[in-house]
Specification:
Distance between the termini: 35 Å
Number of domains: 1
CATH topology: UDP N-Acetylglucosamine Acyltransferase, domain 1
CATH superfamily: Hexapeptide repeat proteins
Order of helices and strands: HHEEEEEEEEEEEEEEEEEEE
Structural class: alpha/beta
Helix content: 10-25%
CATH class: Mainly Beta
Length: 178
Amino acid sequence: MLYYFLSFFTHYLPNHLINSIPFYFLRHSYYRYILKLKLGRGSSIHMNTFIISGDKIRIGSGTTINRRCMLDGRGGIEIGDNVTIGPNVSVVTADHDVQSENFTGRSLKIVVGDFAFIGINATILPGVRIGRGAVVSAGAVVTRDVEEYTIVGGVPARKIGLRSKSLAYSCRWFPPFD
């Protein structure tokens, strides 16, 4: 019975009510103090983001998580400073072993380096490390590590270019009512 009670406050409520509140202060307070999500100064999580296991998620300073993202923290997520994550991005740390006769669940940590940019509708799969300044193009499915300052795209994501190493911006973005 206690499991269901706690699950209501850590899974149902944040993903079906709290994430729809159009005020950052209220959403972020719930994420920080109830879910125990570590959210850096000047970072924002926009509306309708779905969060699993917030206590295993760390987001650095000046980072923006855009609308309708999914952050699956079961395996752990570490997102650096000044990272931009576009709308509808899925960061998935857990899956199932399709070769297992018991369909065994497994989870692996995802790490996203400082100044990385992840485009709209991208999917990051378990165990991936995205290097500092790397770019994941819109719609890409990242199945393996992305080196620093590398641009990847496609399904599965492959190297398509390099990014300038001269980066000095903040992704602090707080539009009203988002």
